[in-house]
Specification:
CATH topology of the largest domain: Leucine-rich repeat, LRR (right-handed beta-alpha superhelix)
Number of strands: 18
CATH superfamily of the largest domain: Ribonuclease Inhibitor
Strand content: 15-25%
Radius of gyration: 24 Å
Number of helices: 7
Order of helices and strands: HHEHHEEHEEEHEEEEHEEEEEEEE
């Protein structure tokens, strides 16, 4: 069947016949997810979590018969299926410490563009006519300093996606953004990251279908309008790396559908009602909050929270006691929080479900005997100047740990003899640990090892 397929004789496009045949064999749900990847620029690094959030926002993920399974979990399974068929490549788990990334090969990107057909359009200064069938547009090489949208786009009432993030340059005018909001009221995805406008128009509250809003990396914006609290369908809000943002709107707890929040703000603490009321929240990323001294006790209400990341908060000194209520927590990232010391691990009951733990840039880390890491599968230790060997609490994950990485720990001198007990370990990476001179003799016991990478 494969040998005789007429695709081998097709000359109608530049897509490899073998690649197109592989695409044709995909089920329809995976086809549309791959086609949506055309929204990303060719050759760019793709944040895997962001990709899955976009799939969910666009309604590309179908609810399985098991209604208790989250759409993000199904999206992760979709990604893994496409990865297993080599449609994605260069997957790096927590390579940037903060997130896992991947790439699309250029040929696969061409395939995605072809599969998207008229539904996707990359808008450049040379584009004159945009089809009425377009549902997703990304702006590149377009004059974003002006006030006008392409004339052929203005009457497209069915537009679902607008992305300005291509090339790292977003709109520079509040009026420009306001025109987008006024024209395209059925938007589900609005990505205006890397912008420099002063305020988000209050009319954003009229986008009642909006599920994904990205205003991150805006160095000018100082506040979010209160009208944002009207976005009852919003699932993902990204306002990280907004250095001038004063804080979250006081009634942000009204966002009953919000699952993913990425935030940078000047607040010393987040009011309990600001975050504690977000009962649907699955992931919370707190970036570069230079004034943050404490986390809200309202965390105890986030019983659905599965990922907590605290990155670049130099004044944060302790975790609240509410941490023990995060019984669904699976992923914890603590990076570049110089004043934070991790002492009473055994008091944090939420760690019992922890699957991945990333610790980096802490001045010191106590190595206490902890018995609650029985589910841990991934551990990254980075930039810990006092770390001389692996912490003893890691032994509690001896039968589950699959991936271990130690990097930039200048006093890391030895791997312990009990490393041989990590019988499930598949991948061990050691980087920039100049004091380490040898591996323990028990390495031969690690019979599940697939990757051993040592550099510098």
């Amino acid at each position: 069947m494969v040998k005789n397929h007429d695709m081998w004789n097709s000359n109608h496009d530049k897509i490899s016949p073998a690649l197109r045949l592989s695409y044709e064999q995909l089920p329809s749900n995976l086809k549309v997810c791959l086609a949506y990847c055309s929204i990303f620029p060719k050759g760019c690094v793709i944040e895997i979590d962001k990709l899955i959030q976009l799939w969910v926002a666009e309604g590309l993920i179908s609810q399985a018969s098991n209604e208790s399974e989250d759409l993000e979990d199904i999206g992760t399974r979709y990604f893994q299926e496409l990865l297993s068929k080599s449609f994605f490549q260069d997957v790096e788990e927590y390579r940037s410490i903060f997130t896992s990334i991947c790439r699309l090969h250029d040929l696969v990107h061409d395939l995605a563009l072809s599969a998207a057909g008229f539904e996707f359009c990359l808008v450049t200064s040379h584009i004159q006519n945009i089809s009425d069938e377009v549902r997703h547009v990304a702006f590149s090489d377009y004059d974003l300093s002006g006030k006008e949208l392409p004339a052929s786009l203005l009457n497209n009432q069915a537009l679902r996606t607008i992305s300005f993030s291509i090339g790292g340059i977003g709109p520079m005018s509040t009026l420009y953004v306001e025109n987008c909001i006024a024209r395209f009221v059925q938007l589900k995805v609005l990505d205006i990251s890397d912008s420099c406008f002063d305020e988000l128009p209050s009319s954003v509250g009229e986008l009642k279908y909006l599920r994904y809003l990205d205003v991150s990396a805006n160095g000018s914006i100082k506040e979010l309008p209160n009208s944002i609290n009207k976005l009852l369908s919003l699932q993902t809000l990204r306002v990280s790396h907004c250095a001038q943002l004063e804080g979250l709107p006081k009634d942000i707890g009204n966002l009953i559908s919000l699952k993913h929040l990425y935030i940078t703000a000047k607040q010393a603490c987040f009011p309990d009602k600001a975050i504690g009321c977000l009962s649907s929240l699955r992931s919370l990323f707190i970036y570069s909050c230079n004034n943050l001294v404490s986390l809200s006790e309202g965390l105890q209400h986030l019983t659905s929270l599965r990922t907590l990341a605290i990155i670049g908060c130099p004044r944060l000194t302790f975790f609240p006691s509410a941490m023990k209520h995060l019984t669904a927590l699976e992923n914890l990232l603590i990076v570049d929080c110089e004043e934070l010391t991790l002492l009473e691990w055994q008091d944090i009951e939420g760690l019992r479900m922890l699957r991945s733990l990333v610790i980096g840039g802490l001045r010191e880390m106590e190595s206490k005997d902890v018995q609650c890491l029985g589910s841990l599968q991934m551990l990254v230790l980075a930039g810990l100047p006092q770390l001389a060997t692996l912490p003893r609490w890691l032994e509690g994950a001896s039968s589950t740990l699959q991936y271990l990485r130690v990097e930039r720990c200048l006093n890391f001198a030895a791997l312990p003899k009990w490393l041989e007990n990590l019988t499930s370990l598949e991948k061990l990476e050691i980087s920039k640990c100049s004091t380490l001179f040898s591996l323990p003799e028990g390495m031969s016991c690690l019979t599940n090892m697939k990757v051993l990478r040592i550099d510098n």
